[in-house]
Amino acid sequence: MNLKSAAMPTLKTSTRLLLAALTTAFAASSMAALSLEGKSAEEKGLAIAQEAERRDEGWSDSKADMIMVLKNKGGRESRRELRVMSLEVPEDGDKSLTIFDSPRDVAGTALLTHSHKIDTDDQWLYLPALKRVKRIASNNKSGPFVGSEFAFEDLSSQEVEKFSYQYLRNEACPGADPLDCYVVERDPVDENSGYTKQVAWIDTAEFRVHKVDFYDRKEKLLKTLSVSNFKQYLDQYWRGLNSVMENHQTGKSTSLELQNLEFKTGLTEQDFTENSLKRAR
User: Fold this and answer.
1) What is the pTM of this model?
2) What is the per-residue DSSP string for 242-275?
3) 163, 184 in Cβ contact below 8 A?
4) Do 271 and 110 meet the contact criterion of CB atoms below 8 Å apart?
5) Is the CB of residue 212 less than 8 Å from the CB of residue 224?
6) What per-residue confidence (pLDDT) applies to 35?
7) How far apart are the C-alpha atoms of 177 and 205, rounded to whole Å?
8) Three-state DSSP class for 143?
9) Number of neighbours of residue 82 by Cβ within 10 angstroms
10) R_g of the chain computed on alpha carbons
């Protein structure tokens, strides 16, 4: 017998062992990330939210075009075109700037948002017809954003610290994809929130939010956000390119379609100031 060949595995065996080792390592890391055993419903809900946040860290900044379509109860539609810029702030909530390009009656309108992990978010709305910046009061953030079914608070980054959590169950994710979802209740900490609770469907594979039910201050179902057409960027960051917010109490809806999404474009803090809001075109 050739002692050298007997002592060393074949290339095929080595490859198989390497794949097995990698698979085991991946499974172990996934189990560690998903380990909810022995936790309370509150601890499970928080752990899921924290894992979703962890997987979305490091994207730095982004730019995108967006098509907004408003539909009334009778089905009549109106279309708007806008741009969105975002900046990741590692020690606080993210910042964003939304600028409307059309139609003419809203062109130049811009919203600047400074989200915070704990403190109340700061938001400013620039109205070109008045040529002035209006600060959005904390008790008005449940109001509709430029006539859409999205409230001002919906446009802030959903930081983990803004909610208390409770894991409810696992079930099939909404939509056509054969995925399993965690169903998690998250209750806003801010007493000025327009919602008493939100129920989110978060897939167990990539921790993407597929659906959120929003309950009003009377604890009645108000709106449902449905997110679809997910695409991965930079081999890590998932974004749903299509979102629909349906208002169950009015019969109206607003859809958003992301286009030309780019990351790490070089945006800085200076692009998200009140002065930049006034210069937005």
Assistant:
1) 0.86
2) EEEEEETTT--EEEEEEEEEEE-----GGGGSHH
3) no
4) no
5) yes
6) 83
7) 12
8) coil
9) 21
10) 22
Determine the Cα angle at 77 with ends 74 and 79, to 5°: 165
Strands 110-114 and 122-127: antiparallel
Task: Say what the pLDDT of residue 281 is.
Answer: 66
- For residue 148, the model assigns a pLDDT of 97
Residue 91, token pair as written in the block = 């020690």
Answer yes or no: are the C-beta atoms of 179 and 172 closer than 8 Å. yes
Residue with tokens 């629909």: 244
pLDDT along the chain (281 residues), means of 10: 43 38 36 72 97 96 98 97 96 95 94 93 92 90 94 94 97 88 97 96 96 97 97 97 98 98 97 86 66
Kindly give, in sequence order, each residue whose CB lies less than 8 Å from that of residue 256, ignoring residues fewer than 6 positions away: 66, 67, 68, 242, 243, 244, 245
* Phi, psi (deg, nearest 5) at residue 280: -60, 130
